[in-house]
UniProtKB/TrEMBL annotation:
Entry-linked PROSITE patterns: ADH_SHORT
GO biological process, one term: fatty acid biosynthetic process
Keyword annotations of the record: NADP
A Gene Ontology molecular function term of the record: quinone binding
Family per record: Belongs to the short-chain dehydrogenases/reductases (SDR) family.
Organism superkingdom: Eukaryota
Originating organism: Didymella pomorum
Protein known as: Uncharacterized protein
Keyword check for NADP: yes
Cited InterPro entries: NAD(P)-bd_dom_sf, Sc_DH/Rdtase_CS, SDR_fam
CDD domains tied to this protein: SDR_c
A Pfam family reported for this protein in Swiss-Prot or TrEMBL: adh_short
Protein backbone atom coordinates (compact mmCIF):
# COMPACT_ATOMS: atom_id res chain seq x y z
CA UNK A 1 0.00 0.00 0.00
CA UNK A 2 1.54 3.31 -1.09
CA UNK A 3 0.05 6.35 0.51
CA UNK A 4 1.04 9.69 1.99
CA UNK A 5 -0.79 8.56 5.14
CA UNK A 6 1.01 5.21 5.52
CA UNK A 7 2.21 4.70 9.12
CA UNK A 8 1.34 8.27 10.10
CA UNK A 9 -0.68 8.88 13.26
CA UNK A 10 -3.94 10.80 13.49
CA UNK A 11 -6.04 11.67 16.54
CA UNK A 12 -9.80 12.02 16.16
CA UNK A 13 -12.39 13.15 18.70
CA UNK A 14 -15.97 12.19 17.98
CA UNK A 15 -14.46 9.21 16.18
CA UNK A 16 -17.30 6.88 17.06
CA UNK A 17 -19.84 8.33 14.64
CA UNK A 18 -20.51 10.76 11.81
CA UNK A 19 -17.65 12.80 10.34
CA UNK A 20 -15.19 11.50 12.93
CA UNK A 21 -15.91 7.87 12.14
CA UNK A 22 -15.85 8.42 8.37
CA UNK A 23 -12.51 10.23 8.65
CA UNK A 24 -11.03 7.48 10.83
CA UNK A 25 -12.10 4.84 8.31
CA UNK A 26 -10.75 6.84 5.36
CA UNK A 27 -7.37 7.46 7.00
CA UNK A 28 -7.05 3.83 8.10
CA UNK A 29 -7.86 2.66 4.56
CA UNK A 30 -4.81 4.64 3.46
CA UNK A 31 -2.56 3.01 6.06
CA UNK A 32 -2.68 5.57 8.86
CA UNK A 33 -2.63 4.63 12.53
CA UNK A 34 -5.64 6.05 14.34
CA UNK A 35 -6.42 7.13 17.89
CA UNK A 36 -10.16 7.65 18.20
CA UNK A 37 -11.88 9.13 21.20
CA UNK A 38 -15.58 9.32 21.87
CA UNK A 39 -17.95 9.63 24.80
CA UNK A 40 -20.06 6.62 23.71
CA UNK A 41 -18.22 3.33 24.27
CA UNK A 42 -20.40 1.27 21.91
CA UNK A 43 -19.68 3.73 19.08
CA UNK A 44 -15.94 3.41 19.74
CA UNK A 45 -16.11 -0.38 19.72
CA UNK A 46 -18.15 -0.46 16.49
CA UNK A 47 -15.81 1.95 14.73
CA UNK A 48 -12.70 0.07 15.85
CA UNK A 49 -14.20 -3.26 14.75
CA UNK A 50 -15.10 -1.85 11.33
CA UNK A 51 -11.60 -0.44 10.85
CA UNK A 52 -9.93 -3.68 11.96
CA UNK A 53 -12.09 -5.68 9.58
CA UNK A 54 -11.32 -3.38 6.64
CA UNK A 55 -7.64 -2.72 7.43
CA UNK A 56 -6.26 -5.20 9.98
CA UNK A 57 -2.69 -3.99 9.51
CA UNK A 58 -3.21 -0.52 11.00
CA UNK A 59 -2.78 0.30 14.67
CA UNK A 60 -5.85 1.66 16.40
CA UNK A 61 -6.27 3.05 19.88
CA UNK A 62 -9.71 3.74 21.33
CA UNK A 63 -10.32 5.98 24.33
CA UNK A 64 -13.54 6.75 26.14
CA UNK A 65 -13.25 10.54 26.45
CA UNK A 66 -15.33 13.49 27.55
CA UNK A 67 -13.63 16.45 25.86
CA UNK A 68 -14.66 18.68 28.78
CA UNK A 69 -12.28 16.78 31.08
CA UNK A 70 -8.92 18.57 30.88
CA UNK A 71 -6.88 15.81 32.56
CA UNK A 72 -8.49 13.12 30.40
CA UNK A 73 -7.69 15.08 27.22
CA UNK A 74 -4.04 15.46 28.25
CA UNK A 75 -3.81 11.75 29.06
CA UNK A 76 -5.43 10.78 25.73
CA UNK A 77 -3.02 12.83 23.63
CA UNK A 78 -0.01 11.64 25.67
CA UNK A 79 -1.03 7.98 25.48
CA UNK A 80 -1.77 8.26 21.75
CA UNK A 81 1.74 9.52 21.07
CA UNK A 82 3.27 6.90 23.38
CA UNK A 83 1.45 3.97 21.77
CA UNK A 84 1.26 5.06 18.14
CA UNK A 85 4.31 7.29 17.68
CA UNK A 86 4.63 10.88 16.48
CA UNK A 87 1.37 12.66 15.74
CA UNK A 88 0.86 14.01 12.23
CA UNK A 89 -2.70 15.29 12.31
CA UNK A 90 -5.80 15.75 14.44
CA UNK A 91 -9.51 16.09 13.79
CA UNK A 92 -11.62 17.63 16.52
CA UNK A 93 -15.11 16.47 15.58
CA UNK A 94 -16.69 15.86 19.00
CA UNK A 95 -19.75 18.00 19.50
CA UNK A 96 -23.45 18.10 20.24
CA UNK A 97 -26.44 19.52 18.40
CA UNK A 98 -29.51 18.38 20.33
CA UNK A 99 -32.76 19.05 18.50
CA UNK A 100 -34.14 20.64 21.66
CA UNK A 101 -31.57 23.43 21.21
CA UNK A 102 -33.24 24.46 17.97
CA UNK A 103 -36.67 24.91 19.50
CA UNK A 104 -36.00 27.72 21.98
CA UNK A 105 -35.52 31.43 21.51
CA UNK A 106 -32.80 33.10 23.55
CA UNK A 107 -35.23 34.13 26.29
CA UNK A 108 -36.36 30.51 26.70
CA UNK A 109 -32.89 28.94 26.60
CA UNK A 110 -32.03 27.26 29.90
CA UNK A 111 -28.60 28.12 31.26
CA UNK A 112 -27.78 24.42 31.47
CA UNK A 113 -28.30 24.01 27.69
CA UNK A 114 -26.06 27.02 27.02
CA UNK A 115 -23.27 25.89 29.36
CA UNK A 116 -23.25 22.28 28.16
CA UNK A 117 -23.17 23.24 24.49
CA UNK A 118 -20.36 25.76 24.94
CA UNK A 119 -18.42 23.34 27.16
CA UNK A 120 -18.51 20.48 24.66
CA UNK A 121 -18.48 22.30 21.31
CA UNK A 122 -16.05 25.12 22.13
CA UNK A 123 -14.15 24.46 25.35
CA UNK A 124 -13.65 20.82 24.34
CA UNK A 125 -12.03 21.91 21.08
CA UNK A 126 -9.80 24.35 22.97
CA UNK A 127 -8.66 21.69 25.44
CA UNK A 128 -7.90 19.22 22.66
CA UNK A 129 -6.11 21.77 20.49
CA UNK A 130 -4.05 23.08 23.40
CA UNK A 131 -2.61 19.64 24.08
CA UNK A 132 -2.29 18.74 20.39
CA UNK A 133 -0.34 21.95 19.75
CA UNK A 134 1.95 21.27 22.73
CA UNK A 135 2.83 17.83 21.38
CA UNK A 136 3.19 18.97 17.76
CA UNK A 137 5.52 21.81 18.82
CA UNK A 138 7.57 19.43 20.96
CA UNK A 139 7.94 17.05 17.99
CA UNK A 140 9.16 19.94 15.78
CA UNK A 141 7.77 18.27 12.66
CA UNK A 142 4.72 20.43 12.00
CA UNK A 143 1.34 18.84 11.51
CA UNK A 144 -2.28 19.61 10.87
CA UNK A 145 -5.31 20.20 13.09
CA UNK A 146 -8.81 20.36 11.63
CA UNK A 147 -11.79 21.49 13.70
CA UNK A 148 -15.37 20.73 12.75
CA UNK A 149 -17.61 23.77 12.95
CA UNK A 150 -20.88 24.49 11.13
CA UNK A 151 -22.47 26.90 8.70
CA UNK A 152 -24.67 27.80 11.69
CA UNK A 153 -21.57 29.37 13.20
CA UNK A 154 -21.13 31.61 10.17
CA UNK A 155 -24.67 32.87 9.77
CA UNK A 156 -26.50 32.08 13.00
CA UNK A 157 -29.75 30.17 13.14
CA UNK A 158 -33.06 31.15 14.60
CA UNK A 159 -33.81 29.44 17.91
CA UNK A 160 -30.33 27.92 18.02
CA UNK A 161 -28.19 30.48 19.78
CA UNK A 162 -26.16 28.06 21.98
CA UNK A 163 -25.16 25.94 18.99
CA UNK A 164 -24.47 28.90 16.68
CA UNK A 165 -22.42 30.68 19.32
CA UNK A 166 -20.37 27.57 20.07
CA UNK A 167 -19.58 27.00 16.40
CA UNK A 168 -18.75 30.67 15.77
CA UNK A 169 -16.41 30.39 18.74
CA UNK A 170 -14.66 27.43 17.09
CA UNK A 171 -14.13 29.54 13.96
CA UNK A 172 -12.55 32.38 15.95
CA UNK A 173 -10.47 29.96 18.03
CA UNK A 174 -9.26 28.19 14.89
CA UNK A 175 -8.21 31.46 13.24
CA UNK A 176 -6.33 32.60 16.34
CA UNK A 177 -4.49 29.31 16.86
CA UNK A 178 -3.62 29.14 13.15
CA UNK A 179 -1.78 32.45 13.51
CA UNK A 180 -0.07 31.32 16.72
CA UNK A 181 1.23 28.05 15.24
CA UNK A 182 2.03 28.88 11.61
CA UNK A 183 5.71 29.56 12.33
CA UNK A 184 6.00 26.05 13.83
CA UNK A 185 4.65 24.49 10.62
CA UNK A 186 1.34 23.57 12.23
CA UNK A 187 -1.70 24.15 10.02
CA UNK A 188 -4.95 24.77 11.86
CA UNK A 189 -8.14 24.89 9.81
CA UNK A 190 -11.86 24.38 10.20
CA UNK A 191 -14.52 22.77 8.07
CA UNK A 192 -18.16 23.82 8.18
CA UNK A 193 -20.33 21.03 6.77
Amino acid sequence: MESYFLDKTFLITGGGSGIGRATAQMLASRGANISIADVVSSNLENTAAAIKQETPEVKILTTLLDVRDERAVIDWVTESERQLGPIHGCLNAAGIAPLSHFEKSIEDTPMLDWERTIAINLTGVMLCMREQVRVLKKQKTGGSIVNVTSAAGCVGIENGSPYSASKWGVIGLTRSVAKETASAGIRVTAVAP
